[in-house]
Amino acid sequence: MQNIQAVELAKAYRLLNHGPTTIVTSAHGGVSNVMAAAWAMPLDFDPPKVLLVIDSSTLTRELVEASGEFALNIPTRALAETTLAVGSSSGREGDKFAALDIATFPSEKIGAPLMSGCLAWLECKVIPELHNQQRYDLFIAEVVAAWADSAAFSAGRWHFPADDQRSLHYLSGGAFFATGEAFNVELKP
Amino acid sequence: MQNIQAVELAKAYRLLNHGPTTIVTSAHGGVSNVMAAAWAMPLDFDPPKVLLVIDSSTLTRELVEASGEFALNIPTRALAETTLAVGSSSGREGDKFAALDIATFPSEKIGAPLMSGCLAWLECKVIPELHNQQRYDLFIAEVVAAWADSAAFSAGRWHFPADDQRSLHYLSGGAFFATGEAFNVELKP
């Protein structure tokens, strides 16, 4: 069982600040879907906003535009194959949750399910910006709730408990990096 | 000496796809500046576009709006202190290149200087989107030239030659992650 704790909204950007690859979950009208997205990042601190690029051909795009909502799930290295798989097939071809044996649990403020086994979750409501959506496939959203597995993130800090529980950074093909060594630097006086 | 090679524009997104922290260089009217930016990511593949968030209070913002150009430089772990320092002071207080002993070399397609010792460089021209700039501090730009140190990136792949030559992922305060272990996964049949 994961010990899932709320993340203070003013610190929610720290879940994304290091540039991890995300998994996007969405739902509308009884249909839900899951896909991978490397192109997600913070846009503002408080209230927290995020940017997400969603290709116009995807089922996720249809569900996000219809519902005005999505969740960003931060997967672990243990979920790298699943991350590649949800990014390599369309929800129009069949239910990816069932096909890939992906367990979920309910979000609090939106309709999209959250993916079990991830490190953190950001529940997001789209701020409608039709020009960006239509011209650039770019979505701006406000983070309305954020959660993290306390084994990996607490008090505004990541502390990955094991190598297969580190976050992921996607390159291309099936190539990823794990999030590496943490270190601190100080300003010289 | 770094062996700097051109990166094919269709593969330039791979310089940013894993979410590294960047250093932004800019210039206009004889003034140049350098600052850190964790909030930069790809927006499109070919022609490549990027997103960059630039706070409205910064000298960089003024130079980018005036010139319509900026460069994204990808720093190494060896440059982590410099990355923190250029993100912690304003170019209005004095020339950060001189104060922090930052060497540069000329870009090819834009006026901003490129920072020596980095892993890769993206020369960018702003696509004017005033609503995004004014409301969200968000800039959309096309990548017009891209370069990489061939010791770290070639044939579309990263291969960091040493631990202090890995890219960086910023969290907050002086806390960073290094880019970690590379690995590949395959789709199950």
Automatic annotation (TrEMBL), chains A, B:
Keywords: Flavoprotein, Oxidoreductase. It is an enzyme of class 1 (oxidoreductase). Its cofactor is FMN. Pfam families: Flavin_Reduct. Its EC number is 1.5.1.-. InterPro entries: Flavin_Rdtase-like_dom, Flavoredoxin, Split_barrel_FMN-bd. GO terms for molecular function: oxidoreductase activity. Residues 14-160 form the Flavin reductase like domain. Belongs to the flavoredoxin family. This is Flavin reductase family protein. It comes from Collimonas rhizosphaerae.
